[in-house]
Every structure is written in structure tokens, then in C-alpha cells.
TrEMBL record:
InterPro entries: Bact_StressResp_Reg (IPR051932), STAS_dom (IPR002645), STAS_dom_sf (IPR036513). This is Anti-sigma-factor antagonist. Residues 109-220 form the STAS domain. It comes from Ammonifex degensii (strain DSM 10501 / KC4). Pfam families: STAS. It comes from the Bacteria.
Length: 252
């Protein structure tokens, strides 16, 4: 075969700009002629990925085409197709990594903390765009559902401005939180934020307003204690009902 008469090392030296690239191009040239052997296919995939990571997609594609002019039986189509598949996989992995990083940053920027029995605190800080608002809403609803929280305190002290789009997301978040059985207490409202919420027509009967975080905590504790009292009373009523039914049964 023609490629056996070609010095792969010479081609690699021509293509490469660094010692690392020389080795990577040499590996690719050696592994390109797989002859259908699985171990060679795996080696080709590894070589291509290393090259793509080192020099980038565009240059790899250009140089693979140039190799075909020096090595006529070089499987240029197969190698390019494999490079495209690997590039697509690498982009997917990068997107997943970026998505995970955004999620981590969102959680760090807006922690959702359980601060009391059946009570969560959402401390918002910095500018909030529509994407971040949606992420916060999804995380909050999941926490409310998993913890069966009865009160959610939303502190927006650290938020300089909320536009109408983000305000709309907050209203949807408040409504969804109420549907899950939790009451919402909003605190830390700046005049600008208050103005936006009023313009959006927020129903302040669906959310309680607190002057500051201390006031919000007092309201939240009062609500949780009231809920606990209701549960205890219900349990007592059920127990009394059970005893009454038992006495009626003994009378016969």
C-alpha cells in the first residue's frame, strides 16, 4: 500500500507547531488505517479527540484534507466523519458542563435555606434576568414540595431593580407556591421594586408584606405555630371521635 512508503513522521512534523502536536498527528496517521479492527477504531477516536482539543475543529479538518494529497489512500471521508461525530459530542459535553455551572452559580447566588420548622428563606441578590428568575422559581417549588414547607420568606433586599418580565415570573412563583400549600412573605422591597409590582397589579392578598427580615420571621413563626395548633386540634378531634365511636359500640 502507498501509505506504507510515506514517512508519517515527516508529515506530522510538517503539520505540527509544537512537540505535542507532532505526537498527536503521528498517532492519528498511524491509527487512521483501522482495517475494521475495534482496537484501532478506539485508538483513532482517542487520537482525533486529543487533536480536536489541542488545535481546534477548523484546523483539524483542513489538515486532514491536506494529508489526502500526500497519502492517496488515506481514508479522509471516514476520518472527517469521525471527527464530526466527536466534535458534536464535545459540544454537547461543553453545553452540559456550562448548564451545570450555571445551576451551581444560581444556587450560590440565591440560596434557599430552611430556617425554621416548615419555613424556607429565599435570599435574592444582584440583578435578576428572566432566566435566573425561572431557575429560582423551579428550585423553590421543588424545595417547597420536598420539605412540605408552610411558609416561604422571599427577601429581595439585595435586588436593585426588577423589570416587568422578572416581576411576572415572581408573581407566577408566588401563585405556584400558594398552590403547593405554602404562604409567601415578601420583604426587603425597595421603592423601585414596589412600583413595578404595583404596575403589574400584584394581588397583595396572596402575599404578605414584611418591613424587614426580622418582621418576616415573626410573621412566619406565627403562621407555623398556628398551623401546628390546627394539626394538634384536628388530631384531638379525630381521637375523640374514635373514642366516641368505641363507646357507642360497647353500648350494644
Amino acid at each position: 500500500m502507498r501509505h506504507e512508503q510515506i514517512s508519517f513522521s515527516e508529515i506530522a512534523n510538517r503539520l505540527a507547531k509544537t512537540p505535542i502536536e507532532i505526537q498527536l498527528w503521528s498517532d492519528l496517521l498511524e491509527n487512521a488505517f483501522t482495517d475494521g479492527k475495534p482496537e484501532k477504531e478506539t485508538a483513532l477516536t482517542t487520537s482525533l479527540r486529543s487533536l480536536l482539543e489541542e488545535v481546534g475543529e477548523e484546523r483539524v479538518a483542513e489538515e486532514i484534507v491536506s494529508i489526502a494529497s500526500e497519502v492517496p489512500d488515506f481514508p479522509v471521508v471516514k476520518v472527517l466523519q469521525q471527527a464530526l461525530r466527536i466534535s458534536a459530542k464535545m459540544r454537547q459535553e461543553q453545553e452540559e458542563a456550562l448548564s451545570q455551572l450555571r445551576q451551581t452559580l444560581s444556587e450560590l447566588a440565591t440560596p434557599i435555606i430552611r430556617i425554621w420548622t416548615d419555613m424556607l428563606l429565599v435570599a435574592m441578590t444582584g440583578n435578576i434576568d428572566s432566566q435566573r428568575a425561572q431557575d429560582i422559581a423551579e428550585r423553590l417549588l421543588n424545595r417547597v414540595s420536598s420539605t412540605r414547607a408552610k411558609v416561604v420568606i422571599v427577601d429581595v433586599t439585595g435586588v436593585p431593580m426588577i423589570d416587568t418580565m422578572v416581576g411576572g415570573f415572581l408573581i407566577e412563583m408566588f401563585n405556584a407556591t400558594r398552590l403547593l400549600g405554602a404562604k409567601v412573605i415578601l420583604t426587603g422591597i425597595r421603592p423601585e421594586v414596589a412600583s413595578t409590582l404595583v404596575k403589574l397589579g400584584v394581588d397583595f392578598q396572596m402575599v404578605s408584606i414584611a418591613r424587614d427580615l426580622e418582621d418576616a420571621l415573626r410573621q412566619g413563626i406565627a403562621i407555623t405555630m398556628e398551623e401546628a395548633q390546627k394539626r394538634r386540634q384536628l388530631a384531638l378531634n379525630l381521637a375523640k371521635g374514635g373514642v366516641g365511636e368505641g363507646n357507642e359500640g360497647n353500648a350494644f
